[in-house]
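Quick bug: Rab family GTPase output formatted oddly.
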Amino acid sequence: MLQKKICMVGAFATGKTSLVSRYVYSIFSEKYQTTVGVKIDKKTINLKGKELNLILWDLYGEDEFQRVRMSYLRGSSGYLLVADGTRHHTLDKALNLRQRVEETIDKVPCILVLNKWDLADEWEIENNEVEQLIQQGLVVIKTSAKTGLNIEEVFQSLASKILEE
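Here's what came back:
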């Protein structure tokens, strides 16, 4: 069985923990839980005839008081860059983190997750910005941990990209 480490990276309160909870346990909680350090979950999936053990590292969110420890990323096969569509500055933070991640572990498969699509009418991230990111080569997927929208797709897509490496 192949084992692959995937990190969840992004600003504070973007929904990283909720995405993992929805994917691994099929649950969503309205209660906000701050991740302290790192929370590790795992899920076994079958992909392209291979059994794959995904080790999901949910890293604490970065804010003005604390920076993500890049050492947590070592050994990662890929990562999800998570931004909250209702807070534009979380996209800026995610793109900044992407640069730091690449400086630390080189280029590994990455997907930009724009979370909280269930609040689409409150979004601050414009479609033309999303299109520009896609044109720059980023895979961008809009999700909702609350409704479950595109959660499976995000993890399946990342796992597929990792297997192609």
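Actually, after a second look the formatting is fine. The two ends are 17 Å apart (CA to CA). Closing.
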